[in-house]
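Hi support team,

I submitted a single chain yesterday and got back a structure, but I'm not sure I'm reading the token output correctly. Could someone confirm the output below corresponds to the sequence I sent? I've pasted both exactly as they appear in my results page.

Thanks,
R.
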Amino acid sequence: MKPVLILSFLFLSCYGHAQPLVTVFESSQGQSTATYHETMEYYRSLAERTPHITIKEAGLTDAGVPLHFVVLDLDAEFDFEKARKAGKTIILINNGIHPGEPDGIEASMMLMRDYALQPQYHALIENTIVAVIPVYNIGGALQRNSHSRANQNGPEEYGFRGNARNYDLNRDFIKADTKNTRAFYETFHAVDPDIFIDTHVSNGADYQYSITHLATQHDKMGGEMGSYIENEFTPKLEALMGKKGTDITPYVNVFNTTPDHEGFSQFLDNPRYSTGYTTLFHTLGFMIETHMLKTFDRRVNATYHFLEAILELAKTDGQRIRQLKVRQSESIKPGKKHALSWRLSKATSKQLKFKGYEGEMIESKVTGQSRLLYGRNKPFVKNIPYYNHYVPAKEVEIPIAYIIPQGWHEIIDRLKWNGVDYQLIQKDTAITVEVYRISKYNTSSSPYEGHYRHNNVQVVVSTESVSFRKGDYIVYTDQFAGRYLVETLEPEAVDSFFSWNFFDTILQQKEHFSPYVFEDVAWQLLQRDKTLRQEFEAKKKVNSEFANNWYAQLDFIYRHSEYYEKAHMVYPVYRWVH
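Hi R., thanks for writing in. Yes, this is the structure output for that exact sequence:
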């Protein structure tokens, strides 16, 4: 395809417009990026010039402005369900999640214009629908500045990473604290893409590449789709990028060291991130990171080439990707094992022919300590190890269903926002279920995206008859959203609702005892219950701290009595396994 910065003034005249549709990026010779309002005005002008483009509106964002997505459909039907039935491939491109990283915003504007208005490109997308979120983080885009991206080489002004409430939206895809995320849910589930692209600018090591990619982690995706991503889609993508003169490599995941020192590992896109979230709905996801030290025009061109390559792969592999997505969704079945967390395995690696720069540690003029310096005058091409194999760290057997008492409306709302199918219990009833009791967890000492997250969660499982009320929710796992259910409702999952503090009220004991009153009750309990008395005496013998703490002794007896509240530490999402 033509270089992005070379404008064609001829193709527009056939649509009856004397003036070409030019982006701010192009008119500034690659120095500037459009404001949010300029971006939306551009797309409105594009939609007026061609029947192949429409603009759709989703819900409000935290900035008080609706989220929009722009659709390119050569048939001008803009009906995603009809397109799926017709066998078309659907692509969703998300831009401006971090508005200080505007490369995708600019590349997408030019891509949608070129492929909508230039008939010579129509054959490539005759069976493809392209949807673009012009700017996801509208609140951040409205906070224009020139200094918040301290490591980035242009543009002259750009938006801010935090949204209107200072959330990082690329950590919000599970917890959905923001209206932006809820509007994204609406968009994502309406579009139901086969391929999802999220555009970023990196903030890490130095190397020769203008662009890197972060594919959905293939082991975590699993099945045929995971194998396809690793062994076919990614190699084809890299080859296409090479033919366009824009080499691409996996995202370089290192900090304060050089990639060739010990190699590097694939970043694990857990469900809080965009491509981790889309994995829960079996969508092939790619996050791209252009290199912050390359010039803005070079980065935008690299992004444009990448998006073109995705269109080319959609043409050749689109139907297969859709079939793999369907089969992937059907693989989540009750009784099967499913991973809740992952760990990197260095037992195997692949060799990357990596184009980097020699690095050395020198004395800092600022601190007097060692600092890393890359030598731009010392480029190299080396084979270095790349570790992208992950193995399950924790697995669980998928239940038939989860049962959720209706009072936990924050959880139920999130399930509904994500299109989860459910049934309501029709009358008060008792059901035999697996019950989790939280036996151990750690809580972070500092806030992270509005939460003090839990980690290293452990549970004790028991089988009990539990009374449920009319109107409580039964959510079966044998559905398209089954993976989403397992990875949000299992408390030990890395990005579960429990880890994000939605169940913290169960961790606080509500009823207590007055020691001077309970002394007599405790004595009676010990006299009446021989087993309790033996456990109590044994604990005093082996634990001197316990033996010298009168309150701990009373609390031990209290917790082993009928007076201790049943709801404390009981996870209120129940597993129906029979």
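A quick pointer for reading it: The longest helix spans residues 296-329. Let us know if anything else looks off.

Best,
Support desk
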